């Protein structure tokens, strides 16, 4: 709980000044550490939804949500930083009015948020969230609408993370994996998803040529995973060729090296030995 001098107006003024000071110091610290520009930026709801792909929504009603789970906004990203500290003095009068009401124990209306995964984005109530942070509250009442997306929101911390999610969404459009197969494919670099898409589509084209039949994307994706990806990953593990990278990263590297060194799409002991020696 914030310090209380017993003078509500003075305490509210101090609350605002303290939040502004922390916002400025946070920007300075990020600059001194040479952190990315998006470290202290609130996540924009529209960009998150665009990256993840929107499937639908459902109203969940009034809930108590963790304050720290609110990391974005629908339309006020310039007025507050990632921790809902005011970025200027424009909203000071309104902010302090709410802080005084909160300190006096007056009833404060619930905020309104969108939920994506475990993350929340404010539709209405930015100042209330900011005041709650200033008073060191842990939860806040909110009317919640859940947004269902095609790609999960896990792993999103900063705006830059949306690039990876966007490329993953496009990859899953081209290679519509399901269930465990979908979960198993994880890449760190955004462009790797594009390269893997090309590789799977080329594998599917060769498969259709061999079998003299047309296969849709879902069938190609399922067969690529069970007939190509899983066996190759098993070979790489046996050969000790997967260390710090993900299975998908190891697979992507090895298929590129295989073709570059040996000009073949086959897998056998000769290929694995050549690739292991290459590492």
Automatic annotation (TrEMBL):
It comes from the Bacteria. InterPro entries: ParB/Sulfiredoxin_sf. This is ParB-like nuclease domain-containing protein.
